């Protein structure tokens, strides 16, 4: 399983931008991968591009582009941070054709790293013809017939050997997956700086058996059956208000450590979205991008958004720093609070009026009258295609209805 990787990779290396003539790599296509264990490689889709006289590394996951820039060089090591997460690539180059290094994911600890390799690839390898088709919807079960079993819906598109798609679960989606099928064997992968997903499988008689890897720390088997009628539970029906709780309220800390009580004078009479999230969570970041659009469009008409971050860091100061970095990086004007450690148990304890918080993200929609109108578990982002479009249209309509806006298109 080899993937393209263009060669100008070294772009961005100094505290200042590096000019293209100083790049010590050959332009072109490279095969790149993360070495998850002794026998398993996760393909990484990479190109290097020139943009406004600068060279940048671009990670491709199907339709998604992740541009890596503003890197530094320390000795022989090049360091390229990911733009949306607390992670980075560190590597050295050899003979202008090879890259050796690591992906560091600091959300999983200071020493969490996975070997990363790329090699110059002048001629793409010819692929064997596929046997069978993965097109369509697949009823999927991860860790089947165990206490850890999780239901999912695979949505796959196949064009000859090329695969794209995602898997939806009741807590979110696997974002933009891309891969290849040869004969009856296939893989799908995604690498976004927070998660490194790899699914290897075998297709036979509209059934799939395979193995799923999340970085180097988690793996499990999965099975899937072609089922165009399969659906998951409605995400608006999973987390609900307890019957004996009609008032939605909480007391948490703002980023500066001061107490924040809800409801309050600033939110009274407003439409409010409470977002339970984490800066380490790609589904949360997809939702945050959408909420920025909502906020920019409807804030002047009475919409408020309160994002509560649950972080992998141990101290309040570091948790607040990670949330503030997100706020500044994405130029967000929401209210941001610190929930604490990244634990659904902690979130459930803080929001005792809910039956349970089972997912980051979870969003609570509150009307001008202070009553909860909707609770949405998880987030199906742009990688889910029509599902995401339908969600956006439905949510926009809900917000306009709660704000009392009529005749909007």
Descriptive overview:
There is one protein chain. A hairpin with a 7-residue loop joins strand 9 (98-105) and strand 10 (113-120). The chain is mainly β and 409 residues long. Helix content is 14%, strand content 42%. The radius of gyration is 22 Å and the shape is globular. The chain has helices at 282-298, 316-329, 344-350, 386-403, and strands at residues 30-35, 41-43, 45-51, 54-61, 64-68, 72-74, 77-81, 87-94, 98-105, 113-120, 136-142, 150-159, 162-169, 172-173, 177-182, 185-191, 196-204, 207-214, 218-226, 250-254, 259-262, 271-277, 303-311, 335-341, 362-366, 372-377. Mean pLDDT is 90; it is low at 1-23. The chain has four helices and 26 strands. The protein has three domains: 20-120, Lipocalin, CATH 2.40.128; 136-226, Quinohemoprotein amine dehydrogenase alpha subunit, domain 2 (Lipocalin); 250-403, Glutaredoxin.
CATH topology name of the largest domain: Glutaredoxin
Radius of gyration: 22 Å
> Taking all residues together, what is the mean pLDDT?
90
SSE order = EEEEEEEEEEEEEEEEEEEEEEHEHEHEEH
Give the spatial strand order of the biggest sheet.
11-12-13-15-16-17-18-19
Which percent band covers the strand fraction? 35-45%
Structural class by secondary-structure content: mainly beta
Q: Could you name the CATH homologous superfamily of the largest domain?
A: Glutaredoxin
- Residue ranges: pLDDT <50 for 5 or more in a row? 1-23
Number of strands: 26
- Assembly level: single chain
Approximately how much helix is present in the residues? Answer: 10-25%
What kind of sheet is the major sheet? 8 strands, antiparallel, barrel
Approximate shape: globular
Helix run count: 4
């Amino acid at each position: 399983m080899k993937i393209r990787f263009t060669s100008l990779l070294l772009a961005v290396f100094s505290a200042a931008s590096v000019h293209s003539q100083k790049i010590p790599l050959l332009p072109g296509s490279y095969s790149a991968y993360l070495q998850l264990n002794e026998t398993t490689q996760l393909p990484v889709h990479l190109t290097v591009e020139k943009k406004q006289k600068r060279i940048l590394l671009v990670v491709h996951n199907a339709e998604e582009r992740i541009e890596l820039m503003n890197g530094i060089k320390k000795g022989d090591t090049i360091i390229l941070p990911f733009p949306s997460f607390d992670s980075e690539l560190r590597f050295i180059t050899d003979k202008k054709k090879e890259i050796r290094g690591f992906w560091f994911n600091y959300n999983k600890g200071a020493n969490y790293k996975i070997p990363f390799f790329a090699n110059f690839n002048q001629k793409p390898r010819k692929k064997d013809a596929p046997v069978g088709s993965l097109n369509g919807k697949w009823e999927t079960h991860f860790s089947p017939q165990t206490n850890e079993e999780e239901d999912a819906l695979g949505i796959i598109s196949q064009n000859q050997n090329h695969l794209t798609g995602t898997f939806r679960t009741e807590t979110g989606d696997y974002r933009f997956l891309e891969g290849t099928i040869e004969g009856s064997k296939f893989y799908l992968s995604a690498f976004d700086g927070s998660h490194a997903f790899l699914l290897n499988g075998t297709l036979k008689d509209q059934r799939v058996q395979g193995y799923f890897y999340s970085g180097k720390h988690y793996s499990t088997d999965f099975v899937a059956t072609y089922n165009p009628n399969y659906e998951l539970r409605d995400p608006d029906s999973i987390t609900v208000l307890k019957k004996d709780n009609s008032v939605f309220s909480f007391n948490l800390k703002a980023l500066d450590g001061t107490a924040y009580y809800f409801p309050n004078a600033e939110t009274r009479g407003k439409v409010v979205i409470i977002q339970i999230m984490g800066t380490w969570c790609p589904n949360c970041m997809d939702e945050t991008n959408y909420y920025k659009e909502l906020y920019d469009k409807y804030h002047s008409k009475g919409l408020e958004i309160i994002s509560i971050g649950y972080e992998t860091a141990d101290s309040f100061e570091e948790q607040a720093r990670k949330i503030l970095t997100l706020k500044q990086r994405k130029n967000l004007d929401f209210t941001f609070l610190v929930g604490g450690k990244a634990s659904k148990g902690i979130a459930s304890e803080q929001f005792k009026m809910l039956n349970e918080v089972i997912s980051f993200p979870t969003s609570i929609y509150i009307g001008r009258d202070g009553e909860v109108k909707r609770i949405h578990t998880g987030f199906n982002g742009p990688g889910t295609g029509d599902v995401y479009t339908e969600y956006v249209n439905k949510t926009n309509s809900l917000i306009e209805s709660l704000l009392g806006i009529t005749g909007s298109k």
